[in-house]
Fold:
Amino acid sequence: MRTKPTFWDLAVIGVVLVVAIALIFVPFLLPSGQTVTVSLRTEEGTEVVYEGELSRDHRFELENNGIKLTVVIDNGEAWVEESGCADGVCVNSGRISRSGQSIICAPAGVVISVGGGGSDDDILAQ
Amino acid sequence: MTISSRSKRFTTRRLCADAALICAALAFSYLEAILPVSLLIPLPGVKLGLANLAVMLAFFICSPVDAALVSFVRVLLSALLFGSPVSFVFAFLGGALAYGTLFISRLAVRRGKLSFIGASVISSAAHGCGQILAAAVLYGVGATFYLPVLLICGIFTGAAIGAILNVLYIRTEKIINVKAK
Amino acid sequence: MLKPNKAVALLLALLFVLPLFGCSMEGSYQTRYIYAMNTDVTLQINAREDVTALLDECEDLIYSIERVISKTLPDSDIYRLNHGETVDCDPITLELLRVAGDVRTVSGGLFDPTVASAVELWNRCGKENRLPTEDELAACRASIGADKIKVNGTSVTLAVGTMIDLGGIGKGYAEQAVAEHIAANAEKYGIVGYMLDFGGMVGVFGKKSDGSPYRVGLKDPDSENSRGAVRLSSGYVSVSGDYERFVTVDGKKYHHIIDPRTAYPGDNGVRAVAVICRNGARADALSTAFFLMGYEATMAVYESGEWDFEAVFFMSDGKTLTTPGADYVK
Structure:
């Protein structure tokens, strides 16, 4: 058994780091999003509490699992402004605006996700 | 659970070694739960992974079967004692993937290509992937945004655990080596 | 352990510096979302400066047009006309009546703003869950026609029982007014491009950040998504479809694009038609006209070359037909 650091230990660290950095940039490659969906994970399943255009500014509070959080949609971005959860990951997740991105507050069971409407269209005539 | 492995029988010595390692793993889990590490790095899923010390010792000193036993019982017990069904799913998937990579790491460590630092970093990266997998199942694919956070933290915690193992391995090998008749 | 640590530190440093590049390559759209003219209106401007003030002006402009041509606001020209008054009309109303008259002529009378009474009748029947009686339809037909609007200079009177609705072409008109106001201020605010949406009546102008033409999706009549798209760099796209507004009687849908000859919802084998045009009000009126005229008659107008437009038809049999100049993509 090897118990002294080797070059390959460093190589492993390097590879993991490169993968992690590459993953950080994945969101930048995603197409910009069109819609925001906010859903709650409850014992009965998933409940969608808000669905709207990303361009439509909106701000609201919601409560699940006894945790309150404030969701803001402004200027084409969505984020959690305030949360009563202990870890604060949802607040620290920052702002999302690209299709496929989401913010998860696991303790509150809240998922905020941005969808793309699934097309390359800039605008829809109807 | 029936145990059948290359190490033919479940000797008293081996049983004791496993029990001691499970205890150590559980104690580490508890330590991490109460230690103010979460104040330093306030991110869920990010922890030192001290319990992994015990799992890796079991894997490298004893056998993969002992390591599986230590890992699974540790995950089960800590979920029962300080966790919830959800935290069990996270810990189980993370633990299972981390465990899986040890098979590959063992080849490299035995040949002297890799020290425990590399093995531990790989293992903690896999642990992060497992947790994200669990999150993706529970909350959707958007959970993957968190993977880089876990991977980068995993480099530091994994390397630290690996460094401890590098020192610890030789000393504990003599104490708990079940193969030494 | 020292060596790896140094390397890790270097890589980490790189990690924090990298995100500084590659950002802000794309100008972002500044968006205003309002409810006006009985529909959702979205104004999106891609500009280097803050365009809040400009968006405020656009919003006021829309409301000022709405006050003149709204069917429901009591002081509007249209409301007063529909309630039997002789009105000294605003230039906006007169302009819209002129456009409506032009499109009525080219459509052989199929586009007619005086079908408003028939739309009202169908709405009422929808609420009562019944079809209109032959007598009611005959009364409507009698109130429809070019001769029911009497224009004398700026003074306008409707025949008794006749109602008009300029809401359809009014959206296109308001959109163009907004577009022209933005264009006049383009240099001041460093405007690169802008997109306007008046309840599905769309206008796109200028350039996208990457310089490519806009893709305007055309809604699939049977779903909420687009069936295809037209590419254009500047102009208006108006769609008239049987799915837009309708009433349901005994489970059957009756849409709101009324054929003035029958006072019944028009059916010429068209599910929806999109008209691409450089004039907002015309685009709006033409899409209604072409829906009622059908593909063949529309092509005759197209080939005459008198009207500058392109069109995309989604037909009842599932076919998609386009005019030769339409840049339609799936």
About this structure: Chain A has a mean pLDDT of 85. The two ends of chain A are 69 Å apart (CA to CA). The first strand of chain A starts at residue 35 and ends at 42. The domain at 32-115 of chain A is CATH 2.60.320.10 (mini-chromosome maintenance (MCM) complex, domain 2).
